[in-house]
Amino acid sequence: MKGLIQRVSEASVTVDGRKIASIGKGLLLLLGVERDDSPNEAKELCRKILSYRVFPDEQGRMNINVQDAGGSILVVPQFTLAADTSSGTRPGFSLAAAPELANSLYRDFLNIARNQMGRERVEEGEFGADMKVALINDGPVTFLLEVAQKR
């Protein structure tokens, strides 16, 4: 499971011309689910993202996580993060989870995040929709976080 996080001043998702979600200060998370992922990966990636220190402390060092910074998180499902780009000039999607599994793990991730942060601080995109994502990347600060199934 992969999560591309961006520290934002604001972010929003629009579907069919209608804004369905928005946050102020916080993290925009593009969430990619791979075919071998399970609820364990959703739990571990959520733990990692919510505790990842990307907000500045008094000295300006990235030393504060989104929860302690009082920020929100906007979670957007993005199957293209699971693409195989190792060869050629066209991505392959054999590593991506089937839609049913991906949506289930996306929902698991949202539930875990809401239990940790509170419902009011976790917004969501629309699984399977053609979304328009707008953001103001603060920094810019962007990190790709990954967790793999433990074998």
From TrEMBL:
<keyword id="KW-0378">Hydrolase</keyword>
<protein>
    <recommendedName>
        <fullName>D-aminoacyl-tRNA deacylase</fullName>
        <ecNumber>3.1.1.96</ecNumber>
        <ecNumber>3.1.1.-</ecNumber>
    </recommendedName>
</protein>
<comment type="similarity">
    <text>Belongs to the DTD family.</text>
</comment>
<dbReference type="InterPro" id="IPR003732">
    <property type="entry name" value="Daa-tRNA_deacyls_DTD"/>
</dbReference>
<keyword id="KW-0820">tRNA-binding</keyword>
<comment type="subunit">
    <text>Homodimer.</text>
</comment>
<dbReference type="GO" id="GO:0051499">
    <property type="term" value="F:D-aminoacyl-tRNA deacylase activity"/>
</dbReference>
<keyword id="KW-0694">RNA-binding</keyword>
<feature type="short sequence motif" description="Gly-cisPro motif, important for rejection of L-amino acids">
    <location>
        <begin position="139"/>
        <end position="140"/>
    </location>
</feature>
<comment type="function">
    <text>An aminoacyl-tRNA editing enzyme that deacylates mischarged D-aminoacyl-tRNAs. Also deacylates mischarged glycyl-tRNA(Ala), protecting cells against glycine mischarging by AlaRS. Acts via tRNA-based rather than protein-based catalysis; rejects L-amino acids rather than detecting D-amino acids in the active site. By recycling D-aminoacyl-tRNA to D-amino acids and free tRNA molecules, this enzyme counteracts the toxicity associated with the formation of D-aminoacyl-tRNA entities in vivo and helps enforce protein L-homochirality.</text>
</comment>
<keyword id="KW-0963">Cytoplasm</keyword>
<dbReference type="InterPro" id="IPR023509">
    <property type="entry name" value="DTD-like_sf"/>
</dbReference>
<dbReference type="Pfam" id="PF02580">
    <property type="entry name" value="Tyr_Deacylase"/>
</dbReference>
